[in-house]
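Components:
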Amino acid sequence: MNLENKKLELDAFRSTRQDVLKQWPTGRDVDFEEAVSYQKRIPAGKRFNGKLAEAVEKGITLIQPRAGVALPQEHIRLLRYLETEGEADLLPTTIDSYTRHNRYEEAEKGIRESRTEGRSLLNGFPAVNHGVAICREVTESVSLPVQVRHGTPDARLLAEITIAGGFTSYEGGGISYNIPYSKNISLERTLLDWQYVDRLMGLYEEAGVSINREPFGPLTGTLVPPCISHSVAILESLLAAEQGVKNLTVGYGQCGNLLQDVAAIRSLKSLTREYLTRFGYGDVTVTTVFHQWMGGFPQDEAKAFGVISWGAAAATLAGATKVIVKTPHEALGVPTMEANAQGLRATKQVTAMLRDQRLQRTPELIGEMEMIAAETRCILDRTLELGEGDWAKGTVRAFQAGIIDIPFAPSRSNAGKALPARDNTGAIRFLDFGALPFDEDIMAFHRDKIEDRAKKEGRAASFQMVIDDVYAIGKGFLVGRPKQNG
Amino acid sequence: MNLENKKLELDAFRSTRQDVLKQWPTGRDVDFEEAVSYQKRIPAGKRFNGKLAEAVEKGITLIQPRAGVALPQEHIRLLRYLETEGEADLLPTTIDSYTRHNRYEEAEKGIRESRTEGRSLLNGFPAVNHGVAICREVTESVSLPVQVRHGTPDARLLAEITIAGGFTSYEGGGISYNIPYSKNISLERTLLDWQYVDRLMGLYEEAGVSINREPFGPLTGTLVPPCISHSVAILESLLAAEQGVKNLTVGYGQCGNLLQDVAAIRSLKSLTREYLTRFGYGDVTVTTVFHQWMGGFPQDEAKAFGVISWGAAAATLAGATKVIVKTPHEALGVPTMEANAQGLRATKQVTAMLRDQRLQRTPELIGEMEMIAAETRCILDRTLELGEGDWAKGTVRAFQAGIIDIPFAPSRSNAGKALPARDNTGAIRFLDFGALPFDEDIMAFHRDKIEDRAKKEGRAASFQMVIDDVYAIGKGFLVGRPKQNG
Amino acid sequence: MNEKTLILGVIGADVHAVGNRILEYAFRQAGFRVVNLGVMVQQEEYISAALETAADAILVSSLYGHGEMDCRGLRQKCEEAGLEGILMYVGGNLVVGKQEFHEVEMKFRAMGFDRVYPPGTAPDTAIEDLQRDLGVV
Amino acid sequence: MNEKTLILGVIGADVHAVGNRILEYAFRQAGFRVVNLGVMVQQEEYISAALETAADAILVSSLYGHGEMDCRGLRQKCEEAGLEGILMYVGGNLVVGKQEFHEVEMKFRAMGFDRVYPPGTAPDTAIEDLQRDLGVV
Ligand code: B12
Ligand code: B12
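Structure:
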């Protein structure tokens, strides 16, 4: 492996491609030239980039669900329902977990069993097994743009098939679809594989077909401080841009503290633009996606509606371009299409009601944005240093050194030393910095915040505090206070 | 009728009382001395004043439903359910519409028919017909404080029976339960009748039993600008305080624009305190109640959850002492107890998650508060002038002159000339001032705001705009824009 | 003149005034002559207003849930007063609670209403029906 | 020493790591010896870890919905490997979608699990059950 942040040579790309398309029989139906002309026939209103640009212009926040089932006809029915009954603005196709791990045989088994049992035994749509033609059937049978949402470390074949299949946006990245989504896969490997994916999108772009790319913002979804997800989003943006990607949507998972959430979305956009421009990719379009709370949900549906609606409100007050919507079934299982549409409609009501409102810029908000920016710069600058000027190499070394450290990530490539906890207002701070490269001011800021909370709760800051915070929203709170403080 | 804002003489009160208690046979079971000693045995944790004070101290927002059915055992079951399954902090007993209009015979018929049909044919609990003993059974069978919520212009007998029946808070007022709730009843009449009610609470207070009083804030619930409801709340507070009431909760119905809603709750509290102190009632405790959107709701339950949750968020970010909760059935009919509990749980999730967050004070927020204060002072000062120093007389004359004018009120005592409409951010402004006594600055402010909206929508401001706003939340928006602007 | 006259009002002890005000506005815009009795209207008031103005239809609203009790006998009283076969609509939130609309409709049809409308019916729906039922374009 | 040994892991292609980390912490706090295999654990890994450490129980988590397919045959493989009658619990979000828990429980009991836990079960519940089933206080 010879990882560097450089646009892949066409020859190398082509030779890899031959192998990729052989990973599963459906690969042979991919024909790039034909796919380009197919993509060009997709009307503008059904393309991600167009729809996102329109939202930016109108100043509105679009809503998008997650959804995917094993069988094509059921999947089409599901998407149509979310379009008409859910009033979705953008559609997804969520890929099942076997496909995510390239276990196509198991996915095949899942498809078969789903057929016999008459219900989906897969937690998503196995797009690779279904192949290009069926993907086209899916994207053609709805009137909204459709995105591939997954969590696949090696997503090359999936990309080839789905983009040829008419999807106009592709989620993921070499970091964000590795560290939270796998255990043993090396970061070099996934960064290389995602260079392939991004180069593929770059080739489409060069052929006149703009595919939207979306690094996965929420990571583990569990108490991820903004500077961590921002660093990952910006790194993946830089890496994607180098491969020729021109349309990026950077993401962030809701924390629950309004000030921090708004500061996060706004700083995410400006920091991403800043780094892209600074490193020569000023022509890339950047939009934002806000994920409604991605951690553990309350089981009660009414309470889940409360969490969903508050996420919708924060997204809109922040001015995010789109919001990814949870459902009242979140804590229990993959939602029925009805539950999915309910989450969407609750969200639609709130985003539409608040469309003309934004959170005011206050000194506190600006302070929060500056803190996030300072933290993110510490991480990114050190990453570039470690990479000796190469963002890809830097990324690998930064993870090795714990310079980037994602809380609760299962991957062995992740240090797992940094520990987050909420402060007295529910904003997520660091209780343990691990090896994060922060300066003394930043560390003092976090220590004070955590100290204030510890004082208020009359206990020392410890892992128990982290656990309490992990459970808190599921139990109806934001900050996991000890009982007596209830 | 000789209305003046003066504490009722005990003799006069007592002689009126004899008549009041004769209005319906159950009146004879009221014995003030016995009721006082009964009330004194109610534990502190089950009293409104205590629970509200605790909320102020903890800085949390309590949640309270509306609920009432015809038959005692069903009503008890309903309240218990809202306590346990709804996680309510405070309980209500909503009174049916026949009782509200003192039509006890019809209420009796409603009780009988409800018995035969096995479902409630009344839209509330007919407390007068049921009498003191059954009210006590109700208040004793739950462990939370219970309030009477109604809409009764002449609520004297209802007050006598329910306070003797163990309720510790009483909603309403001579203005707020007349103008939005009746057509032909004179304002003098209801102000006099509510002097009686307030004097009764004053007598309990003097006997050592503190009963919480809550003027009804939302009025018609439909596009009521804050200065109108603030003026009414402050007038009723002054009138109640004169009769010896010491514990007041002033209310406001959500508009939907966060800045205006927060400004409204904060200015409501400070203005009420200011006027009470200025006029010699500095010892009265003032808390606030925020009503989730009181106008037309969306029929879809998921969308209704969105409206409910956004109301919960605004209440908490504003720092209201309590929030009155709507249900997912709002647009359709009196909710089942399950739907009622769902509205509560969604609200609980949001108020608890946001308990440590407040909207920051920005120049815009302060500006909004100052505007509300200026408008309210114009109205109140002119009212006092018209009353030649007497708030009660002033109130009557102010309504006659359209100095106070409640949008959409059915009462003939209301001018009905002023027209509200939303501005471009959804804040409620005046499109027509009627005879409201605003100075030129205030009027220019409103005109500009409405003009901005008209410009954005490419149409002239007219009654059509008001209609569009009335329907807007039900249709999923806050501002009722013409279709093409959607 | 071909103008049709409608009697409008919210029945019983019901004070919901907003929809009533909008209906009046919408019916006028649509070219009807509207006699709006406002809220808290008794059965007798509808009838005498209809007699006085030779009205073509009576439109009853009930929002607060007691509609079932308030509306009973209105048709009979109309007949007795000489308003045989006058067109009678009813709409709003007619019963207490969220109920299967079909049943509600049957109940009010049995009381003699020609058309029964579910919660949140738009004025336009009623205007179209009126035009059809009264034979105006 | 009376310490009981537990094998912990999230089965299949499942990467949900949060609950696993908390379970490890809670079981240790409760005095158990914990061998945590983390996420993405294959059936064989549970078995060899249990054999190596002479474990008293295997605790399987499955959150992502494929539990039904991933867990099949684990009991048989245990028996074959000589882990006859080893205590086996399973918990998490075991199937795809919100399903009647009783049926899910029956399904996993039929696969040979001694106890089956619904979504969101608190660690304390499992700790009490372990103490009872393993005869510790
Ligand atoms: C955070 C999260 C993620 C993160 C995980 C990050 C990470 N690496 O850990 C990310 C975003 C990466 C993710 C990905 C996916 N997720 Co996910 N995720 C969640 C979520 C929101 C919270 C999980 C969590 O951390 N909870 C907090 C911990 C403390 O609780 P817990 O995990 O439930 O564990 C506790 C108990 O269950 C119990 N327990 C667990 N196991 C056992 C075993 C025994 C024996 C006992 C006694 C108790 C016990 O004790 C634990 C500690 O208290 C849940 C929904 C929810 N619960 O709200 C969905 C959920 C589990 N995910 C789901 C799915 C489908 C996925 C994806 C396939 C697709 C997607 N939606 O993106 C991928 C799968 C990736 C993969 N291959 O596994 C589904 C599973 C559906 C189903 N079973 O029907 C859920 C339920 C959401 C949903 N309703 O759709 N997810
Ligand atoms: C605003 C409101 C109030 C205000 C009314 C102010 C006023 N004086 O006008 C206040 C706060 C005072 C109030 C009081 C009460 N209300 Co109220 N109120 C509402 C609310 C939220 C909106 C009503 C509204 O203005 N809608 C907007 C207008 C434009 O729509 P509309 O009224 O539905 O009318 C339209 C259509 O229905 C249709 N229509 C109406 N009539 C007819 C007739 C015909 C022939 C046709 C074709 C069409 C038609 O056209 C209209 C215009 O588009 C509704 C719930 C909802 N809809 O969201 C509850 C609601 C009507 N109220 C209700 C109740 C119970 C009460 C109270 C008894 C108790 C309480 N909850 O406080 C009191 C009753 C007082 C009384 N004696 O009448 C219930 C009725 C329950 C039921 N039927 O099962 C409702 C449904 C709320 C609920 N789910 O509990 N209320």
